[in-house]
Amino acid sequence: MTDTAVAEPTMRQGMRDDLAQMDPMDLTQVVEELGALIDTVLRSGYLDEIAGSNPHAGRALLILNVCQAQAERAIELSRHCEGLHASLSRSA
Question: d(Cα 18, Cα 25) in Å, to the nearest integer?
Answer without folding.
Answer: 14
